[in-house]
Design goal:
The structure holds two protein chains of two kinds. Chain A is α/β, with parallel strands linked by helices. Chain A is built from 13 helices and ten strands. In chain A, helix 7 packs across helix 9, helix 10 runs parallel beside helix 12 and helix 12 runs antiparallel to helix 13. Chain A is globular and about 55 Å long. Chain B is 27% helix and 27% strand. Chain B has a seven-stranded mixed sheet. A three-stranded mixed sheet of chain B has the order 5-6-9. Chain B is globular and about 45 Å long. Classes of the chains: A alpha/beta, B alpha/beta. Chains A and B meet through strand 2, helix 1, helix 2 and helix 12 of A and helix 1, helix 2, strand 7 and strand 8 of B. Strand 2 of chain A pairs antiparallel with strand 7 of chain B, so a sheet runs across the interface.
Chain lengths: 300, 215
């Protein structure tokens, strides 16, 4: 929602997507307490994601996962100077209204929480605050952008410490973008139908060879090498959560993942920052998860 | 004695630790520079100008501080390398930071307050008149922008918004509180490329340069 006054226009798409552009090359870390937020900031995180439980714990505990308590979010906002994001449930526009009223910086309409609406995502154009949404393929990314998302992240499979799904989603999104660029103009409507995506966005992507918003990666990143892998595949930045806090030395691992994200093309730096880190998150093999446990299948 | 010709495409770096460095790189290329990304102190030795982009200044302090990059940039600045800092880059070039943090690079005699306009919900766009840069008003995209709360005597205020300076210059350092790299307006990048061209040629004729920019 754009608001015009003598103080300038707030909530424009350029201001929303522009903020995500400022986060490029950075690491956004899940945090559940002000103390963890401080650790993330000191490690060089470019933003933090405030949530009640990290995905690995949500996965283990079960039950309905919801937006965090505003008091906890306020505590995190006060603890750090970097931007603060928070998650709301898919389709839960009132949780989003509450988060906007808290004056945080970004909302993640996230499959990690239990969806509130099985058919509809939030109409994100109605908000002044920008949204990031997950996607497993290009069609899903463009549907979210059509609804007003100002940033996309590959979904991966949160809380597993297994990067395989993040790789699959990133390769799928970027591969589908490359295929669009070689179509003739009269083939684009059929591509839009196949992708189930708005034609104007399909045209934009075909013309520019990229998404109109920043594309981060998320879900299963557990090591500096994982982060650099996703950056070399074409991610603009990295979300990481359980991979840090389920490891044996979160502060050192957080710092190493930040370093690896900046120097993702420099194997010597990657070797140095990968050295001497205490145990990584044990992780979960995908075959061990039965269908209903996959978070990535939430949303469409 | 003959004067060596100015290099047609000076090499200009963009600090690429974190932030909107690709947008700056594209803008510099369009403005006539050989634009390269800078991630190590060694990369500073063969550039003639530097953009410190928007991003998170805290991240910049930690990642660039640990690797010796900030120290190397300070040395390059002291040696006269021209620099453009936008948003967090302006914070990096400022001599003073309101909450008491130590300067990152410094050189611009100003004090800035970080995120002084509020959270992202308060980020805004507005037209800004810029003195001496031609082309009429420019689009100012302010994202969690810093506010310049003090300027020293040697600092030229080239643009203000609602009473606060938003574009400042001191010799070869240009600080911009908003994000020209998110628009099509390349006037600040063209200024840096022109400065870099002269720096590369080992010439710094301030008067001539200023008259060119104002033309």
């Amino acid at each position: 929602m754009t608001d015009e006054s003598a103080n300038g226009r707030t909530g424009t798409m350029r201001v929303k997507t522009g903020h995500a552009q400022m986060l490029q090359g950075g690491v956004i870390m899940d945090v559940t307490t002000p103390e963890q937020a401080k650790i993330a900031e000191d490690a060089g995180a470019c933003a933090v994601m405030a949530l009640e439980r990290i995905p690995a714990d949500i996965r283990a505990d079960g039950g309905v996962a919801r937006m965090s308590d505003p008091e906890m979010i306020r505590g995190i906002v006060e603890a750090v100077s970097i931007p603060v994001m928070a998650k709301c449930r898919i389709g839960h526009f009132v949780e989003a209204q509450i988060l906007e009223a808290l004056q945080i910086d970004y909302i993640d309409e996230s499959e990690v929480l239990t969806p509130a609406d099985e058919a509809n995502h939030i109409d994100k154009h109605r908000f002044t605050i920008p949204f990031v949404c997950g996607a497993t393929d290009l069609g899903e990314a463009l549907r979210r952008i059509g609804e007003g998302a100002a940033m996309i992240r590959s979904k991966g499979e949160a809380g597993t410490g297994n990067v395989v799904e993040a790789v699959r989603h990133m390769r799928t999104i970027l591969g589908e973008i490359r295929r669009l660029t070689v179509l003739s103009e009269d083939e684009r409507p059929a591509a839009a139908k196949h992708l189930r995506a708005p034609l104007d966005l399909v045209n934009w992507v075909a013309d520019h060879g990229k998404l109109p918003v920043v594309l981060f990666t998320a879900g299963g990143i557990a090591t500096p090498a994982d982060a650099a892998l996703m950056m070399q595949l074409g991610a603009d930045g990295v979300f990481v959560g359980s991979g840090i806090y389920k490891s044996q030395d979160p502060a050192a691992r957080a710092r190493a993942i930040v370093e690896a994200t900046t120097h993702f093309q420099d194997p010597e730096v990657l070797a140095r920052v990968s050295t001497g880190l205490k145990g990584a998150m044990p992780g979960i093999e995908m075959d061990a998860l039965v269908g209903g446990e996959l978070l990535q299948s939430r949303g469409w | 004695m003959s004067v060596s010709p100015l290099p047609s495409r000076p090499r200009v770096g963009v600090l690429a630790v974190q932030g909107a460095f690709r947008e700056h790189q594209a803008m510099l290329s369009a403005a006539g520079a050989d634009a390269v990304l800078v991630r190590t102190p060694a990369a500073l030795s063969d550039i003639a100008g530097l953009v410190v982009p928007g991003g998170e200044s805290t991240t910049l302090r930690i990642v660039a501080g640990d690797s010796g990059l900030l120290e190397a940039i300070r040395a390059a600045r002291a040696g006269g390398m021209p620099m453009l800092g936008t948003c967090a880059g302006l914070i990096a070039l400022a001599d003073g930071i309101a909450d008491g943090d130590t300067p990152l690079v410094g050189g611009l005699d100003v004090t800035v307050a970080r995120n002084a306009y509020g959270s992202q919900v308060a980020s805004f766009e507005a037209m800004v008149d810029v003195l001496g840069f031609g082309d009429g008003p420019c689009e100012g995209v302010f994202i969690r922008a810093p506010r310049i709360i003090r300027t020293g005597p040697a600092v030229e205020v080239l643009a203000s918004f609602q009473g606060d300076p938003v574009v400042v210059r001191q010799d070869g350092l240009l600080g911009v509180a908003f994000h020209p790299e998110l628009t099509d307006d390349s006037r600040f990048h063209r200024w840096l490329v022109e400065r870099a061209r002269r720096y590369a040629a080992g010439r710094t004729n301030q008067t001539m340069e200023d008259s060119r920019v104002r033309a």
